[in-house]
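Anyone else keep sequences and structure tokens together like this?

Example one:
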Amino acid sequence: MNLEIHKPELVQRVQAQIQTGHFHDTDELIEKALDALDEMAATPAVMPQGSLHDFFMNSPLRVANLDLERVADYPRAFDAGRDRTRDFAQGDGKRRRDLQRWFDEDLPALFVGRILAFDARVASCWASLTALLLDKGRPLPILDSQIAATALER
């Protein structure tokens, strides 16, 4: 059987995988891909049990003395966005200006030093973490696993 790849970017990806030594040839690449598909089909999807707090407390991070208590007055982005949209739609000119100032100046000040970047290093950690958890049959939701990877890298 002969297979033909029509997408140049896919040809480049296959060649790169062979050149880096991940695979010796296209036969091995296809075999590994099919094995992975078979394994995925044979492994039932398992929903994660517990919360992100439980995940951290049952991981090597439990010795990191993380403070996982929610700050009561810490604004949630969804609530702020919903309230801002409602108030903009219903507010008068002064209310809109005050709210815009709060949103542009006061709200960002609440998050100074609290927002960590999801950079290439964290993305690499996230990919490894996701693969590890999938292998163990304990996947986390995407956002939870991105938060976990950020914590692991920081």
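And example two:
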Amino acid sequence: MNDSPKDQPESSSTERRRAFKLRTYGPDPEEIEKKRQLRRKQQQTDQYKKVKSGSLRVVVLTVLVAAAALFAVYSQVALRAQIQKQMPTELLGNWRSKDARFEGRQLEIRIDSITFVLSDGESDQYRVRAVRTKPAERGQLFAVESVDRDGFESAHIFLYSKAFGGTLQLQNRPDVVWWRSP
């Protein structure tokens, strides 16, 4: 191969000219200005990256604080709902409805069971597993987790009010009011 200047790419001849100008005339003012601008852009980019990473830290910190606040609120709400293993005393007793559709029916609530007595004398009995109590707008809300005779789990939700000596409403029949039998 021949290493003559004509065989070499044009870029190497450009580099040689620059080197010659640099030795002869000193640094090119335009080149110096271009390098300064590049350095400024690099510094601005570095500052932007610092600000961006700082912003990310602020966002992460904000999310963590918000999560902690939500956890605190949730904990307070969860603490208000009390869990018991047996029925509260205000629900104990025999309950009847004055509604004609439920004539002859009765709701018997014992410390460890709920029995729905039908008008023909048959009954459905549930063993109480847990009772969750929570204040409600019109009284006290009771969510009763129970198991029937066949082992099937169920949930019964009652709204108890102290009005008129104590009334009870089932969530699935809020239009029917149950009264404690004497």
